[in-house]
Amino acid sequence: MGTIYKRGRVWYLDLRIKGRRVRRRVGPSKKIAELALRDAEVKIARDEFGFTKNDIDIEKFFDLFLEYSQATHRQATTNRYRAVMDHFRTFVKQVPNVTFLSEVSTAVIDRFKVYRKSSWTNGNGRPVKSEEDASANTRKGARSHTINFEIDTLRLLFNLAIKWGYLKENPTKGVTRLKEDDAKSVRFLTREECQLFLEAAPPDLYPVYFTLLNTGMRKAELEHLTWADVDFGRRKILIKRKDDWQPKTGEREIPIGSALLEVLSALKAQSKNPSNADCVFKVKSSGRSHNMLRNELMKIAKKAGIENLTKLHTLRHTFASHLVMQGVDLPTVMKLMGHSDIQTTMIYAHLAPDHLSDAVDKLSFT
C-alpha cells in the first residue's frame, strides 16, 4: 500500500490512496518515517487520511468558489478573493505533489507565508516575476497585514470546502498570524492641504470632495447616495442598502455638520426638485472611466501643489485622522467610519498619544 524512501537526508512516504499517488515529506529519521507509514496505512484503511469521497482539484475548487463569490459578495470583495487565489496558484505550481485540495497541509500554508514574504509584489499586491521587472512601485515581499488577510481568505475558502464536503479539516488551523509591524503609514491631508485642495477643485466636483472629507464615506457609498438617504431634519446621512448594492460593513448613520449642511442644501436647490430616488452625486461610472474621481483628484492635487495624493481613500483617512486628533475616541471613530473591527480603527491611534493618559487622569478615588 505504501513505502518509504530517502532523498538526500530526508525520508518521504510514497502512498497510493484511492488510485492517486501521494508523497509526503517526513524528516531525517527513518524510524519516524516507518511509524508514519504505519499510521498512514491505518488511516487509509479507516478512510481517515484526510481525503473525502468528493476530493477536488484546487483549480476546480477555486473556480467553484469564484462562482459562489460572484453570486454572494460585492464585486470588490470577489476581486480581492480572486487576487489571493492567484497568489496561491502561483505558489502551488512551485510545490511538488500538491494538486488536490486534501494535499494542502498546514506546512504548505506556512510555506505560502514565507513565499509571500520573499516574492516581489507591486503596489496593487499583484505578483512580479523577477527583480528585473521591478519598478518604483514594487517591493520585495508583501506586508504582514496583507499576508494575514490572505491567510484569513484561505481559511474562509477551506471552511467552505468542508461545508461542501471536499475537506475533512481546515489546513489553516493552527497557522499563526504575522505580527503587523511593517504596516505602511497612513497618508492624510493637513488642514492647510484640505483648504488648498478644495480651493483648486472645479465647482461641479467641489461638493463631492467636500462631502468625502466631511463624512469619511467610501467611494461606493458616495456613488449610491440618494436624496432619500439625506435626512435634513435630523441632519444625518444614511448609508443604506439598495436593490443592486449593499454597504461593505452594513448600514450606518453619519451626522451632517453645519458646513456640509449648507453645501448639500445648495446642491439640492440647484438640482430643481430632485426625486428621492435620484443620486446626490452624478459620479457613478463603470468600464474604463470607473476611476474618474481618482483621476480628477490627482489633477486637483497637482494644481494645488499637494504631493503624494494619488488615492481617493486618502480623503477617508483624512476624516478619521482629524477626528482622532480632535480628541474623538476610537470606538466613536469606528462607528462613523463603518469599520467592522476596532483593529482597523487602531491605525489612527498614534495620532492621539495622550488619549490613554487623559482617560486615566479622569480617575479619582480620594
The count of domains is 3
Q: What is the global morphology?
A: elongated
- Quote the beta fraction: 5-15%
CATH superfamily of the largest domain: Intergrase catalytic core
Strands in their spatial order, largest beta sheet: 1-2-3
Low-confidence stretches: none
Helix and strand sequence: EEEHHHHEEHHHHEEEHHHHHH
Question: What secondary-structure arrangement, pairings included, does this model have?
Answer:
Elements lengths: L1 E6 L2 E8 L2 E8 L2 H16 L12 H15 L2 H18 L13 H13 L1 E3 L15 E3 L3 H20 L27 H10 L5 H10 L3 H5 L6 E2 L4 E4 L12 E4 L2 H13 L21 H13 L8 H13 L4 H8 L4 H4 L9 H7 L5
Antiparallel strand pairs: 1-2, 2-3, 4-5, 6-7, 7-8
Helix pairs in contact: 2-3, 6-10, 7-9, 7-11
